[in-house]
Amino acid sequence: MSPRSARLARLSRSVTFSACHRLHSKSLSDEENLKLFGKCNNPNGHGHNYKGLPTSRVLPLQIDPVSGMVMNLTDLKEYMQAAIMEPLDHKNLDKDVPYFSEVVSTTENVAVFIWDSLQQLLPQGILYKVEVHETEHNVVVYKGEETIVK
Fold it and tell me: Which of 40, 48, 78, 86 is an active site residue?
């Protein structure tokens, strides 16, 4: 029998959190906001049951031959509790989360917030992507990409 080669895997864990928000840009007039965001610009806001799904990188995450794991799920659960559940669950994103005081609380920006929060907690280079499901039809995937603004 030949020695087994190292196996690589990606690990994901999902959480569901409930939050409300109002899509409204301070850079636009009330009329422009209403035209752009429609019913999601309701002054009283609206809510979602979001699903967050961070995924770890393939490299250098080899399946440990002793534990059989890429990463301990208990550790990942604790990181997700601190980065996602505590700041976002049952919150008004625009009023309770300082990040969204100057950033429109779109699902795209929720994904960026989760990415940035997890990056501070997870070992360097381990996070591959963050997937946020606003509804069963609306999903944002963010992989930490940035562009240079000129």
Answer: 40
Does the annotation count 134 as an active-site position?
A: yes
Active-site residue among 32, 78, 86, 90?
A: 90
* Residue pLDDT, tens place only, 78-133: 999 999 999 999 999 999 999 999 999 999 999 999 999 999 999 888 899 999 99
78 a catalytic residue: no
Instruction: Tell me the CA distances in angstroms from 62 to 22, 37, 58, 119, 128, one per residue in order.
Output: 42, 44, 8, 20, 14
Question: Is the pLDDT reported for residue 71 higher than 70?
Answer: yes
Distance of CA 129 to the CA centre of its chain: 8
Match domain 8-142 to its CATH number in 3.90.76.10, 3.30.479.10, 3.10.25.10, 1.10.10.10. Answer: 3.30.479.10
133 has catalytic annotation:
no
